[in-house]
Design brief:
With 291 residues, the chain is of the alpha+beta class. Helix content is 53%, strand content 20%. The strands form three sheets. A three-stranded antiparallel β-sheet has the order 3-2-5. Strands 6-7-8 form a three-stranded antiparallel β-sheet. The chain has a two-stranded antiparallel sheet with strand order 1-4. A hairpin with a 2-residue loop joins strand 2 and strand 3.
Length: 291
């Protein structure tokens, strides 16, 4: 590991507001010894007041005469709090959920929409969360709302509907950078719902329906073109063999007969009709000769 790189504890220490390397001073040490003496005099009653239990998922930031003790918070387990001069603040290190209420946003293409989301974050530095911001949860909540509005204002409605994951990733990156000095780590950001006006929904539905109808007509036209090409090829094959046309007629008649229809309309070729009609004409021509 690079020795020149500063540790997270040192960075937190440098980012803290109002923390200096000064010691307690003469008055501070006097008060310290008086507090220890008071604890010894009132022992064992004082021990129950001075020992505090910090849970596994908590940390305690101890202030002694108004100054933060140590570079990092204490805990978990038992910690000793001196009477009169020590004050401690518990910080929960578990993951918190921040529900962003629906935000009315004007997109880049001038469409009004409402978007809500959820942010998952945790405190990784209890000292920074206590010393650098008044209310870390409220500050994170307000920052998440502002970041959501600012990000979505630069996107169009179609981009918002299609790129939720990318939007969430951008919001998470910006929030993580902004809340780093507060000791906050943003774990995940999700866009829950995108609400658009009812009139716009109808317009989008009509546009989608028109697009589908246009595609259906194009596909039908392409199908007709392919069918006409296939019929042309079939007619050329049938023209070479007249018997094949007769067999095709018989096959069509068989197919129609299987459907149990009471009436069957079956077309006959013109040459067959001419042949059938030519027999009486020939007989009519022969009759005068016989006469």
């Amino acid at each position: 590991m690079d020795s020149g790189a500063s540790s997270p504890e040192k960075q937190d220490k440098e980012n803290l507001v109002g923390i200096t390397s000064q010691h307690l001073g003469v008055c501070g040490w006097i008060l310290f010894f008086l507090s220890v003496l008071l604890m010894i005099i009132t022992f064992p009653v004082s021990i129950w007041m001075c020992l505090k239990i910090i849970k596994e998922y908590e940390r305690a930031v101890v202030f002694r005469l108004g100054r933060i003790q140590a570079d990092k918070a204490k805990g978990p387990g038992l910690i000793l709090i001196l009477p009169c001069i020590d004050v401690f603040v518990k910080v929960d290190l578990r993951t918190f959920t921040c529900n962003i209420p629906p935000q009315e946003i004007l997109t880049r293409d001038s469409v009004t929409t409402q978007v809500d989301g959820v942010v998952y974050y945790r405190i990784y530095s209890a000292v920074s969360a206590v010393a650098n911001v008044n209310n870390v949860h409220q500050a994170t909540f307000l920052l998440a709302q502002t970041t959501l509005r600012n990000i979505l204002g630069t996107w169009t409605l179609s981009q918002i509907l299609a790129g939720r994951e990318e939007i969430a990733q951008n919001i998470q990156t910006l929030l993580d950078e902004a809340t780093e000095v507060w000791g906050i780590q943003v774990a995940r950001v999700e866009i829950k719902d995108v609400r658009i006006p009812v009139q716009l929904q109808r317009s989008m539905a009509a546009e989608a329906e028109a697009t589908r109808e246009a595609r259906a007509r194009v596909l039908a036209a392409e199908g007709e073109l392919n069918a006409s090409k296939s019929l042309k090829s079939a007619s050329m094959v049938l023209a070479e063999s007249p018997i094949a046309l007769q067999l095709r007629y018989l096959q069509t008649l068989t197919t129609v007969a299987t459907e149990k229809n009471s009436t069957i309309v079956f077309p006959l070729p013109m040459n067959i009709l001419e042949g059938i009609g030519g027999i009486p004409n020939n007989n009519h021509k022969k009759d005068p000769n016989r006469a």
